[in-house]
Write a structure and sequence with these properties.
- Chains A, B: Substrate binds at residues 232-234, 366-370.
- Chains A, B: Residues 20-214 form the Metallo-beta-lactamase domain.
- Chains A, B: Ca(2+) binds at residues 48, 50, 445.
- Chains A, B: The active site is at residues 195, 370.
- Chains A, B: This is Ribonuclease J.
- The structure is a homodimer of 554-residue chains.
- By secondary structure, the first copy, chain A, is of the alpha/beta class.
- Chain A folds into 3 domains: 7-203 and 368-445, Ribonuclease Z/Hydroxyacylglutathione hydrolase-like (Metallo-beta-lactamase, Chain A); 208-362, Metallo-hydrolase/oxidoreductase (Rossmann fold, 3-Layer(aba) Sandwich), CATH 3.40.50; 453-553, Ubiquitin-like (UB roll), CATH 3.10.20.
- In chain A, 31% of the residues lie in helices and 25% in strands.
- The first copy, chain A, has 16 helices and 27 strands.
- In chain A, the strands form 5 sheets. An 8-stranded mixed β-sheet of chain A has the order 8-7-6-3-2-1-21-22. In chain A, strands 9-10-11-12-13-20 form a 6-stranded mixed β-sheet. In chain A, strands 16-15-17-14-18-19 form a 6-stranded parallel β-sheet, sandwiched between helices.
- In chain A, β2 (23-28) and β3 form a beta hairpin.
- Chain A is globular, with a radius of gyration of 29 Å.
- Chains A and B meet through α10, α13, β24, α14 and β25 of A and α10, α13, β24, α14 and β25 of B.
Chain lengths: 554, 554
C-alpha cells in the first residue's frame, strides 16, 4: 500500500459512554496499535455476570496488523481484560515497570505469564511500529507510573492522554511532564484523545498531598487501633498512610489479598518506601497494644468479600474491631457502591468503633485521580489539537468536555463525540467520521472464565422476574392421545395462596389444548401449550413466566 | 385491667434500620394507636418485587385494641402501605387536609375509598382514645401540612416528631410550631421519638426559599422552553416554580400523572396558588413560542416510566425537547437513583438541551426536608425528653442521633436504639427494652397486588444467577426400568460453547444414577439425580443451577 492509499483511523472498542473496559485503536495502513485493554464490573442487572470486556472481533480479523498493546497505567479498567485478550490474540504488551508488575500478577493468576511477551518502557522510550513511531509523557494519576502516548504518524501526531490530573505537589515525585507536553503541543497535534471522567466538576483537582494531612490528623487523634482502607493500587496514598504510621509510632499490618500483592509489587519495584521493622503480620496484631497498630486493608468500596467487610462483622481470624478503634474510609464510594459501604459503617458502629466515612468534601480522606474541568482545559491548552476526541466517559461527560475544548480554542465541528466502534478517519489532515466497526460487550461469568451469551442472560432475566412453569404430559406416540394427566411445576412464579387452584386450572387448560390433536405432533402441541397457558396466566396473574412444555411420547 | 397492671409500650413495625415503610405503635392497656403506614420501594436484589410494606401480624392479632391510624404527612414512606393495611384491618385514619387528599387518591385507585373512615384533623385537634389523649404540633418538611404528635398517657407524654426540619423562612407559611414545642417540653416529655434521616449531616438544613432564588435565576437565563422536574408532593417547591413562571411571563403545563393529581389536590385544598390563566394543557405547548412555556413534570429520580424519561427520548406526543431548551432537575437523586438520572441527562444532552443537574451543593436546586444535626439538636433541646428513641434511619444514623442527644443532655443509657419489633416498655416512668413482637417485610408484587413469599423470591434468585436444568426420564411404573433416554433442557445456565457435550454428559450421569434402581422409587430417583448431577455440574462449571428432575412412570 503506498502512502497515498493509507488512512489514519482512530476508534474505541470500549470506554465510550461508559466508565470501564477502555480499549482504543490507532491504525495506519498495515500497522495497528492498541491502547489499553480494560474490564468493567457488571452491575446487578446483568444477572450472575461478573466481568465485561471489549468485543475484539475486529482485532481478531486484523490480527496480522497488530503491532502491540500499549498500556497507559495499571487500573482494572485499563488492564482487566488483558488475560482474556491474550487468550485470543498474541501480541507484545508495552507498559511501565509498575504497570507491568500488576499485569504480571494477573497473567500469573491465569497461568499465561510464561508465554506472554511483556516489554518494559518508560516515559523516555521511543518505539517504532512500521509507519507509526511512538513516544510518551508522564502524567499524574491515582496510581504510579502513568503514561500519555504520542503517535507520530505520516498524518501528524496523535496524543492519547491516558488517565490524568495535574498534581503540582504529588507524592513520591509522580510529576506530570508539563514541559514535554508543551513541546508536543508546539510541534503540532492533529488529534487529541483525552479522558473525560471529571468533565462535570468545576475547578482543579485537589492534590493527593491534601489527603495526607487529613490522614495524619486522624492518626494523631486516634486512641485505639487504626483500621484504614483504600484502593490497593493507590500506592501514593499507601505511602502517606505509611508516613502517618511512622509519625505516630505504630506498626503496620496489611490485610486483603490485593493489598498484600500490590504493596509487594510496589515495594519490590521501588514505588513505595516501607521500612521492614514497621510491617507486621496480621497474626501479630492481637499481641500489640491497640494504640500501636495500623491495619491497612482492602474493601473501601464495600466489596462483600474484602477485608473490611469481614472486619465489620468481626469475621477475621486475626484482627478484631474493638470499641474505640478508629476505622477510616480513605476513598469515596464509587457511585453504585454507597449501599454496601453504608452497611459496613452500620456494622462498625455496632461494634463500637469510631468511623470516618462519607463525602470526601467533609472528611478530606479522598481526592480524585481524574482532572476536573480546569485540568482538562490545561491539557487542551498545552496540546492545541486540531481535532479533539473526548473518551473515557459517559455521554454527558464527553459533551461537557467538548464545550470545554471549544472554550479554549478547538474549532466548532472539530470535536468527535464517538461511540464504541465509530471510526474517525484522518486523510490529508482532514478528519471525518463515517464508518463503524463491530464493538460491544463480551460477558465473562464469575468462576468459569467462560464467556456467556445474550440468550442465557435474557433467560435469566425472565426467570428472575417472572419465574417459570414446567408442564409435563405423556402421550401415545402412535395416535397422540394423552396417557397421563398434565403435571405442572412452578419455580419463582406462583404466589403462596391460590397456587394449587391456579396450577389445577393450568392443567385443565393444557388438557383442552392438546386433546383435540389427532396425532403425536409434539412441536405443535408445545407451541399450543405455550400460547394458551401463557394467555391464561397473564389473564390470571399479569405475569409472563417462562413456560417449558415437555411432551413425552411413549 | 386496672392502671397498675397497664404498661406503656412503644415499638416500630417499620422504619428502623431502613428508610421507608414507617409504622410505629403506641400501646397502653387496651388502647393501641398506630402512627403512619408506609411503603418502601424494592431494590433490584428483590427480583420482580415492587413494594415492601410492614408485616402487620401483631396488629391483626390485636385488632380489638386498635383505636386509629394517625398519619403525620403524605409521603409514600408514611402512607404507601395504607391501601394494603385497610384490606386487612378496619380502622379510622386521622390526617390533615392535604395528607387526606393524597390518601384519598390512593384509596380511590384501590377502589376502597367509600368503605374507609377518614377523619380530618389539624394541629389544633385534640383526640381521646381511651386512656390516651392526643394533641399535635406543626412541623416544616418537604410537603405541606405536617404534624408532630403528642400522646398524653398516664405514664407521661410521648412525642413523635414525624419528619421535620426547622425552616424559619418557609414557603406558603408552613411554619413550625416552635412555641408550642417549647411548651410541650416544659410540661415534660417522658420519651421522644424523633426522625434521624440527616443525622450524618453537620449544620442546619437550608431553607426551601434558597431553592426559589436558584430557580428564578435559571428561569431568567433560559432562552428556549423550560422543563423542570421535582417531586410532585413538594408543593412548596411547585409554588416557587409557579412564582418564577409568573415573573418570566411564561405559561405552565403539567406533565405526569402524579404531578397532575397532586397539584389538583393541592389547588383544590388551597396549598398552592396557581392562577387559571397560567395553566395550559400539554397539547398546547407546541402552539406557543418555546420562550413562553414552562413544563413541570415528574421523573426527577430517573423513573423509567415517568414524564421526564419519556421527554429525554422524545417519546412524548405533545412536548418535544428542542435544542436550547433548558431542563432543570429540581431534586437531588436519592442514593441508588444516580444511574437512571445520568442516563436521562445523557439523552437530553444528545437532544441539544442545556441541563441543570447534579449535586445540590453546586446547582442550588434542592434542599432536604429532613433536619440536619443542628435541627435534630434543637428538637431534642426543646423537648428535653427523659428517654429518647431515634427512628426513621439506618443504624449509623440512629447511632449518630444518639450521640447528638447525649451532647444536648439526654442521659447515657436513656437512648434506645431499637430494631423493628423491639418493644420499649414504660412502667412507673422507667423504660426498659426486653420483649420483641413479630415484625418484618411483606412483599407486594407489581401488578397483582398480591403478596409473595420468601420461597418464590429465593427461587428467583437462584434462577437468575445460576439458571436451571430440567431433566426428564420415563420409567416403567412396575419395575422402575428406564423406558426413554434422559432428556435435559437448560435455561439461563449453559454456555453457548460446549453445551451439547455438557448436556450429553449430564444425561449419561442421569442414566448411571437411576439405572441401578430396582423399583419405581420416584422420590429416591429425584433425590439421587439432584445430588449426582449437581455435583457433576459444579465440578464442570462451578455453577449450581436449579435442577428439576421429572420422572414419568408409565
Amino acid at each position: 500500500m503506498s502512502e497515498k492509499d493509507k488512512t489514519l483511523s482512530i476508534f474505541a472498542l470500549g470506554g465510550i459512554n461508559e466508565i470501564g473496559k477502555n480499549m482504543y485503536v490507532i491504525e495506519y495502513g498495515d500497522d495497528l496499535l492498541i491502547v489499553d485493554c480494560g474490564a468493567k464490573f457488571a452491575d446487578e442487572s446483568l444477572l450472575g455476570i461478573d466481568l465485561i470486556i471489549p468485543d475484539v472481533t475486529y482485532l481478531q480479523q486484523n490480527e496480522h496488523k497488530i503491532r502491540g498493546l500499549i498500556v497507559t497505567h495499571g487500573h482494572e479498567d485499563h488492564i482487566g481484560g488483558i488475560p482474556y485478550f491474550l487468550k485470543k490474540i498474541q501480541c507484545p504488551i508495552y507498559a511501565t515497570r509498575f504497570t507491568l508488575g500488576l499485569i504480571e500478577l494477573k497473567l500469573r493468576e491465569h497461568k499465561i505469564l510464561r508465554e506472554s511477551t511483556l516489554v518494559e518502557i518508560n516515559s523516555k522510550s521511543k518505539l517504532e511500529f512500521g509507519d507509526i513511531n511512538v513516544s510518551f509523557f508522564r502524567t499524574s494519576h491515582s496510581i504510579p507510573d502513568c503514561l500519555g502516548i504520542v503517535f507520530h504518524t505520516p498524518e501528524g501526531n496523535i496524543v492519547h492522554t491516558g488517565d490524568f490530573k495535574f498534581d503540582l505537589t504529588p507524592v513520591n515525585d509522580q510529576y506530570s511532564d508539563i514541559h514535554k507536553m508543551a513541546k508536543i503541543g508546539e510541534q503540532g497535534v492533529i488529534a487529541l484523545i483525552s479522558e473525560s471522567t471529571n468533565a462535570e466538576r468545576p475547578g482543579l483537582t485537589p492534590s493527593e498531598k491534601v489527603v495526607g494531612t487529613h490522614i495524619e490528623d486522624a492518626f494523631f487523634n486516634a486512641t485505639g487501633k487504626i483500621i484504614i482502607s483504600t484502593f490497593a493500587s493507590n500506592v501514593n496514598r499507601v505511602q502517606q498512610i505509611v508516613n502517618a504510621t511512622m509519625k505516630t509510632n505504630r506498626r503496620l499490618a496489611l490485610l486483603g489479598r490485593s493489598m498484600v500483592n500490590v504493596v509487594k509489587v510496589a515495594r519490590d519495584r521501588g514505588y513505595v518506601d516501607i521500612p521492614d521493622w514497621m510491617l507486621i503480620d496480621a497474626r501479630e496484631v492481637r499481641n500489640l497494644p491497640p494504640e500501636k497498630v495500623v491495619v491497612l486493608c482492602t474493601g473501601s468500596q464495600g466489596e462483600p468479600l474484602a477485608a473490611l467487610s469481614r472486619l465489620s462483622t468481626n469475621n477475621n481470624r486475626d484482627v478484631k474491631v474493638l470499641p474505640n478503634d478508629t476505622v477510616i474510609f480513605a476513598a469515596s464510594p464509587i457511585p453504585g457502591n454507597e449501599k454496601s459501604v453504608s452497611k459496613i459503617v452500620d456494622n462498625l458502629f455496632q461494634l463500637g468503633a469510631k468511623v470516618i466515612y462519607g463525602s470526601a468534601s467533609i472528611t478530606g480522606m479522598h481526592v480524585s485521580g481524574h482532572g476536573y474541568q480546569e485540568d482538562l482545559k490545561l491539557m487542551l491548552t498545552l496540546m492545541k489539537p486540531k481535532y479533539f476526541i473526548p473518551i473515557h466517559g459517559e455521554y454527558r461527560m464527553l459533551h461537557l468536555h467538548r464545550l470545554l475544548a471549544e472554550e479554549v480554542g478547538v474549532e466548532e465541528g472539530h470535536t468527535f463525540i464517538i461511540r464504541n466502534g465509530d471510526v474517525v478517519d484522518i486523510k490529508n489532515q482532514e478528519a471525518r467520521q463515517t464508518r463503524k466497526i463491530p464493538a460491544g460487550d463480551t460477558y465473562v461469568d464469575n468462576v468459569g472464565d467462560d464467556e456467556i451469551g445474550d440468550i442465557v442472560l435474557r433467560d435469566r432475566k425472565v426467570l428472575s422476574e417472572e419465574g417459570m412453569l414446567v408442564i409435563v404430559v405423556t402421550i401415545n406416540k402412535q395416535d397422540g392421545n394423552r396417557i397421563s394427566d398434565p403435571d405442572s411445576i412452578s419455580r419463582g412464579f406462583v404466589y403462596a395462596r391460590n397456587s394449587e387452584e391456579l396450577i389445577a386450572n393450568v392443567n385443565e387448560v393444557v388438557k383442552q389444548t392438546i386433546d383435540p390433536f389427532k396425532e403425536a405432533n409434539i412441536m405443535g402441541m408445545k407451541r399450543a401449550i405455550k400460547k394458551e397457558v401463557g394467555n391464561f396466566l397473564f389473564e390470571q396473574t399479569k405475569k409472563k413466566p417462562m413456560i417449558l412444555p415437555i411432551i413425552i411420547a411413549v
